[in-house]
Write a structure and sequence with these properties.
This is ABC transporter permease. By secondary structure, the chain is mostly helical. It is built from 7 helices and no strands. Helix 1 packs parallel to helix 4, helix 4 packs antiparallel against helix 5 and helix 5 packs parallel to helix 7.
Length: about 200
């Protein structure tokens, strides 16, 4: 099978952890769709979204980092090719969330795609920044992301100001959208800086 030259670096993605976490996240969202309206569904969606985002943290892992750095393709070009995989994970997650929303009869679940996008951008930005010191930062970032999301979900430290992870109609979606837009903007800026070639 011929791979377009621009996407060639994506062939080096460590597919096993990406596939395992993506499958796990989609499986949890499927559980959320099947048991819609129950606490099981809410928990499955709450955990499934960061699991999907955590899977994208592995797309920038490069075990042979020193060898790859010697090729004439820039770090940013190699990163963009791998980020196509992360975009694919977000697209699959968005489709699953639409399915959850359709089963529940409310569009609120589909809006969780905003959270998934923000978490994914934060995950890949953190992985890109850590990649300067670790060849394979995916495990650290994925674990940290899942831990952070679960802590925010259980402890609700920002509840006074904003619903960080709204999931039902009537919750404070506007504030959440602003928060995730800020997370996305900061993450994109960090990703742009972290994928600059060291000699630029």
């Amino acid at each position: 099978m011929n791979v377009p030259r621009a996407l060639g670096p994506a062939t080096g993605v460590p597919w096993r952890p990406v596939a395992v976490l993506t499958s796990g996240g989609l499986g949890l969202l499927l559980v959320g769709a099947v048991w819609t309206g129950t606490s099981v569904s809410a928990t499955a969606v709450t955990v499934g979204v960061p699991v999907l985002a955590g899977g994208t943290a592995y797309v920038l892992d490069e075990a042979a980092g020193e060898a790859v750095a010697a090729v004439p393709t820039s770090l940013r070009a190699r990163s963009v090719a791998r980020l196509v995989v992360a975009a694919g994970v977000v697209a699959l997650g968005a489709l699953a969330l639409v399915g959850v929303a359709l089963r529940g009869g409310s569009g609120a679940k589909a809006a969780i795609t905003v959270q998934l996008t923000g978490l994914t951008l934060a995950a890949v930005a953190a992985a890109a920044a850590l990649r300067r010191r670790l060849a394979e930062p995916g495990e650290v970032v994925a674990g940290g992301l899942l831990g952070l999301v679960l802590t925010l979900t259980v402890a609700h430290p920002l509840q006074r100001w904003v619903d960080v992870f709204p999931s039902e109609a009537g919750q404070r979606w506007a504030g959440s959208a602003v928060l995730w837009a800020l997370v996305a903007a900061v993450s994109v800026a960090a990703l742009w800086a972290a994928t600059r070639d060291p000699l630029d």
